[in-house]
Design goal:
This protein has helices at about 20, 45-60, 60-70, 90-95, 100-110, 160-170, 205-215, and strands spanning about 30, 35-45, 80-85, 120, 140-145, 150-160, 175-180, 225-230, 235-240. The protein is of the alpha/beta class.
Length: about 240
Amino acid sequence: MPCLACATAPVAGDGLCVGCRAGFTPGTERRLDGGVLVRSAYTHAGAARLLVHRLKYGAHPAAAALLASAMAAGVPAGAAALVPVPRARLRRWKYGVDPALELARALGRALDLPVVVALAPEWWHRRRAGPGGARRGLPRFRAVRGVPPGAVLVDDVVTTGATLRAAGAVLGGPRRAVTATASTGVAAPAPWPTRGYSERQAPSGDADDGRVRAARSAPLPDPPCIPVRSPSSGRARRTQRR
C-alpha cells in the first residue's frame, strides 16, 4: 500500500512512509484579531500539506483521522463541543467533501465530544488562501443553531484568520479554534480534478508545483481557422477565431 501523503513509498503501520513521517513541522499557537486563540497541529508544508490535500481534494477519510490525532492535543480540556467551519457549498459539491466537518467528526470520536453543525455557508466564495486573501472580503456564514459555552471551532487550514474570525463573530462566542495546519502563504495550487480523483493524480510536493508552473508558462497554440460563409457572396472564407 502506498504512503497516504506522498502516494509513492511503501508504508509501515500508520499509513505513512519513513520520509513523510519525518517531514512534519510542528504548528504554532496565535491569537487572531478579535480574540480567537488558534492552535495548529502542523505548519502547512511537506507531508502535512499533502495530507490536507488528500482530505480536501480527494475526500480521503484516513487523512482526516491522521490529522485529527495530531489536532487533539490543541483542544482545551474544558471544550464542550466542536463546531466545524463549513466549506462553500459549491466547493463541497465539486470535491465531494467538507474537510472541517470530517476533521471535527474524527476529533469528536477521539475525544468523545459532540459535533455541532451550527454554521451554514455561502454558495461560493473566492479563494482566500495566500497573500492578499484578506483583501478578497470576509466569508459569509449564517448561524443555524446556538453553541454551548466552551465550543471550539475546527478548520483544516488557517492563513490570515479571516474565516475563523467571521465564523466566531456570527456565533458570538467561540474564543478557541483548532486547525490541522497553519500557513502564512500557500503555494500555487495544482489543477485538481473534481470527482475523478485518484492517488496517482495527487501532488507529490515541489516537483508537482514545478510542473504546474511550466504548464502555465507554455505558449498557447495559434487559434484554429474555421470557415465563415460571407452573407453577400455565399463563398466560404477562412478566418481565425479570436
